[in-house]
Design a protein that fits this description.
The chain is mainly alpha-helical. The chain has helices at residues 14-17, 19-50, 52-62, 65-92, 104-125; strands at 96-97, 100-101. Strands 1-2 form a two-stranded antiparallel ribbon.
């Protein structure tokens, strides 16, 4: 006697069925923009090594409207990626003190506070203040 396994049909709308799936796929999609921004930085380093004229051309390319839109999208996705990771951290890294575990909000909150402080330090050294 042979048994035929049950195979559930998965349609194209599986992604929109559950909001958790949408958030997961958005997080995975964000890596494309972050990776593209990283490649842009490598391209900029290569242009910097080629001399002042190439560097000026690279800076001019960064000032185009399409480039600005892509950079803003990459920043938004990087923020989304960081926020979702910081919210996930208590599950990936539970901290135990004695017999009790540290509350999830404390672990996530500590990450957000350090992120904010480091951002302020970087802005200070960049001359934004």
């Amino acid at each position: 006697m042979s048994r035929k396994p049950y195979l559930r049909k998965v349609g194209r709308e599986w992604l929109t069925r559950n909001p958790r799936y949408m958030r997961y796929m958005l997080r995975e999609f964000s890596c494309l923009f972050i990776g593209g921004w990283t490649l842009m930085l490598v391209w900029g380093l290569a242009r910097l090594a080629q001399g002042p004229a190439a560097w000026d051309a690279f800076l001019a390319a960064l000032r185009t409207p399409a480039s600005i839109v892509l950079q803003v999208l990459a920043l938004a996705f990087a923020i989304y990626h960081a926020v979702t990771w910081f919210k996930l951290t208590p599950k990936a890294l539970p901290v135990q003190r004695g017999e009790e575990f540290v509350a999830d909000q404390v672990i996530s909150g500590a990450h957000f506070v350090v992120w904010g402080l480091l951002s302020l330090v970087i802005l200070f050294f960049a001359g934004a203040f």
